Amino acid sequence: RAALELRPPGDRDRSSTLDELNLCLSTRYDKLGIVADLEEAIEFGRAALKLLTRSHSSRGASLHNLACNLRKRFVKRAAIQDLEEAIELLRSALELRPTEHPDRSSSLCELAFCLSHRYDKHRVVEDLEEAVTLGHEALEL
């Protein structure tokens, strides 16, 4: 938080500081289960993403991290819009993470988790089939 204060709006490194804060809060949520940490992580993740151009090298990671937090919030609150947004963000992240990208498999797995959750909610077989396909692709990588 102190580092963020040193990177005012317009600072070229502000997005990376927002993303780091996002990751710290998300990790703390994982350890302690404090929902306010997850809410704040999502807020900082959204702010970081807004600062990144479509071609920025960190955009794929930022999309992935925000999607992970939205999936966590879906698990906590069962708000389908969080899951739908996470799926959309992960599809965008995968566009930025081609087959040779070292983090592609993690985005494939996360998208498979999200599709599996959506299948559990709506019982659309195509979601389950795609989740299985993505899981296989992740294993191949």
Automatic annotation (TrEMBL):
Lineage, highest ranks first: Eukaryota, Fungi, Dikarya, Basidiomycota, Agaricomycotina
Organism (species): Pisolithus microcarpus 441
Record-linked InterPro entries: TPR-like_helical_dom_sf (IPR011990)
UniProt-recorded name of the protein: Anaphase-promoting complex subunit 5
Name of a matching Pfam family: TPR_10
